[in-house]
Amino acid sequence: MARVLDGRAVAARIREEVAGGVSELAARGVPVRLDVILAGEDPASVTYVSNKRRDCAEVGIESRLHAFPADVSQKELLALVERLNGDPEVSGFFIQLPLPGRMDPLPLLSAIDPSKDVDGLSPQSAGRLAVGLPCLLPCTPHGVIQLLGRCGVELEGREAVVVGRSNLVGKPLALLLLRENATVTVCHSRTRDLAEVTRRAEVLVVAAGRRGMIGAEHVREGAVVVDVGIHRTEDGGLTGDVRQEEVSGRASAMTPVPGGVGPMTRAMLLYNTLEAARLQAGLS
Fold first, then answer.
1. Is the model's pLDDT at 284 over the cut of 90?
2. 14 assigned binding-site residue
3. Which of 12, 151, 232, 247 has the greatest CB tally within 10 Å of its CB?
4. pTM of the predicted model, to two decimals?
5. Which positions bind NADP(+) (predicted)?
């Protein structure tokens, strides 16, 4: 049976560290504040934002919500982004995605000051990551790296395979794995004989967004498996991209769903907000 990579426990430790860092900055007179831009009333987005604001309160980070109706103009949101960029009281901020209707998020993300881009999703942040310049890292990929490192999973010199090439997870995670000196392969919907490729992986990360697509036939004996996917089941439960019961007999360690990568993503947003505050105070 595979060892459980407990994201809840590791995230709790990171949150404690962030709370300590926030207190240290407060003693120096440096506030830490996270602003959130929410357009529309998508139920999932409203829930996510509520959870993130509650997380902030638990570690001492002030949060402010800028809520707009679904028919808000892109021009109005862009004006807010520019105002938050220039506000010295704002440590960092993010735009909750998806945006309503046909609104294009790219111009808005592109306008975010990289030093305040706590989601790490702007083209400037992505470019800095790609060429190895300092930047705030995207939360889910960074959470995966932190989880592996804090659970004692060695990455240097190992063969890692990432299933999925999204801008949100797959691409930045491949870059972060390279930074840890892993040998990285990225698979996607056009990969020929997926199982043959994934069976090479000593570390297999699945972020394809397809429920239960990875089974025992895809996994090398003794591999470490990270399941980034999350899907609602018919009975109201949660499951991932990996068929967990099937794969646990072959993997040496794996993340559960829920309780694996999800808590790490939320913790890394807090981590990034603290780092942004330190950057702007010249303390990082």
1. no
2. no
3. 247
4. 0.96
5. 164-166, 230
